[in-house]
Design brief:
161 residues; RidA family protein; 60s Ribosomal Protein L30, Chain: A; alpha+beta; 7 strands; Endoribo_LPSP/chorism_mut-like; five-stranded mixed β-sheet; RutC-like_sf; two-stranded antiparallel sheet
Length: 161
């Protein structure tokens, strides 16, 4: 079944579109070992984002065994929301964020084969919020395991506009 292309949600700014979706940017927890983003020239590399909400990991397990596709998609959307928070922190304003590339890791069984469908949920959120600035190059891959036994991790490269 073919899905329609994601569209930008109504709103004049990315922040307004985010609110229209009933979402807000989370506050990212600090870490002793890494920073949420690193700028090199005009490129901003974001640390891998897990589906944390208020300091709590929203899911664990392997997609195709412990985690259903729809749950993995929701976790991917939340990881993408965390990536948006890191990007906004890096550039100072959500409206200045342009996503260049996204890498989606899906802890999945060898026969799962729907990593792109998991990643689509994250891509849709970025486009709904950022419009054309949310369209990006992307890779989705299945892996044997991820930190904290999370089903999804997302890494993003972006730039400021």
């Amino acid at each position: 079944m073919s899905r329609p292309l994601p569209q930008t949600v109504n709103g004049d700014s990315a922040s307004e579109r985010l609110r229209a979706l009933g979402l807000k940017l989370p506050v990212l927890a600090g870490s002793t070992y890494l920073v949420p983003h690193r700028t090199v020239g005009s490129t901003i590399h974001l640390s891998g984002q897990l589906p944390f909400k208020d300091g709590e990991l929203l899911g664990q397990g392997v997609v195709g065994r412990d985690v259903e596709l729809e749950t993995a998609q929701e976790l991917a959307r939340h990881a993408a929301l965390n990536a948006l928070a890191a990007a906004a922190q890096a550039v100072g304003d959500l409206d200045r964020v342009r996503i260049v590339q996204m890498l989606v890791f899906v802890a999945s069984t060898p026969d799962f084969g729907q990593q792109s469908n998991v990643a689509n949920a994250a891509s849709e959120l970025l486009i709904e919020v950022l419009g054309e600035n949310g369209r990006h190059a992307r890779t989705a891959i299945g892996v044997a395991g991820l930190p904290l036994n999370t089903p999804v991790e997302i890494q993003v490269i972006c730039t400021a506009v």
